[in-house]
Design a protein that fits this description.
Layout lengths: L1 H15 L14 E12 L8 E12 L2 E4 L2 E9 L2 E10 L20 E12 L2 E10 L7 E9 L1 E3 L6 E13 L1 H8 L18 E13 L4 E11 L2 H4 L8 E12 L1
Antiparallel strand pairs: 1-2, 1-13, 2-3, 3-4, 4-5, 5-6, 6-7, 7-8, 8-10, 9-10, 10-11, 11-12, 12-13
Length: 256
């Protein structure tokens, strides 16, 4: 379970830390940042303790190809105002039933892999992102479509001692197959304190804020918080004790 939490935490931080948070860098070859952070995550499943994990921070780019955490992407269209990318990323949700007394008698819900498209656009300091992905390994056979908007507040100069604060609002649609796989209870898994539950398609809302402070053009710290409110289709699951997900992190990165 420790490895599962570490992988999930790593992926969550990489989702929270947007590519646009790093300052622009010139030159050929690989560009980006490497660092280390600490994540606190509130676990929504029953019987799961909140976790605190050390997290590596990875954000690398080579021409149109990039790696952001566990997400691998290629920019099909790359313009000054934005890009259209093809992306592949793991879905690090689910649980090992043997790790939790409440889940005894249930089948494990496994990780999977999503592939899809991402649209990123920036107009001045306003940032837009739309992502649509689908399971390609056949574990949950689900889809997810998400959209977010953010605003980049910049304080300070263009070199050293620059503070960037980026609040974001988002909406996420999850298909019935996806919700049912990770939050449903099958007939053969049901018991008195865990009734049968069939998940349906629904929406989650997200709100967050990301802050980056750059000491120099190559060194900086970052911190962020992201809150995701589950729609009724997920919140009503008997597997959950929270109707939200919350994560907070802070870290240091070296940019090159």
């Amino acid at each position: 379970m420790r490895l599962r939490n570490l992988l999930v935490g790593f992926w969550l931080v990489c989702v929270v830390v947007p590519v646009y948070a790093a300052p622009p860098m010139g030159g050929a070859g690989w560009k980006g940042s490497l660092g280390l952070g600490v994540l606190w995550k509130a676990e929504p499943y029953k019987g799961e303790d909140d976790t605190i994990l050390p997290i590596p921070l990875i954000n690398l780019k080579y021409q149109r190809f990039y790696i952001q955490g566990f997400t691998v992407g290629y920019k099909l269209i790359d313009e000054l105002e934005g890009s259209i990318d093809i992306i592949a990323q793991p879905r690090l949700e689910g649980y090992d039933a043997s790790d939790n007394v409440y889940f005894e008698g249930m089948e494990d819900r496994d990780y999977s892999m999503d592939v899809g498209l991402a649209l990123n656009a920036q107009f001045g300091r306003v940032l837009f992102n739309v992502t649509a992905v689908s399971d390609v390994l056949g574990y949950n056979d689900g889809q997810e479509v998400s959209a977010s908007v953010g605003y980049n507040f910049v304080f300070g100069g263009t070199g050293q001692s620059v503070l960037r604060v980026t609040p974001t609002l988002g909406l996420k649609w999850l298909s019935a197959n996806l919700v049912d796989y990770y939050y449903g209870v099958r007939a053969e898994e049901a018991r008195l304190d865990r009734p049968q539950y069939t998940g349906d398609a629904g929406f989650n809302g997200t709100v967050g804020v990301m802050a980056n402070y750059f000491f120099t053009t190559h060194s900086g710290i970052s911190a962020g918080i992201q809150y995701e409110a589950f729609g009724n289709e997920i919140a009503d699951s008997p597997l959950l004790e929270k109707d939200y997900s919350l994560r907070v992190f802070a870290g240091y990165s070296w940019m090159f």
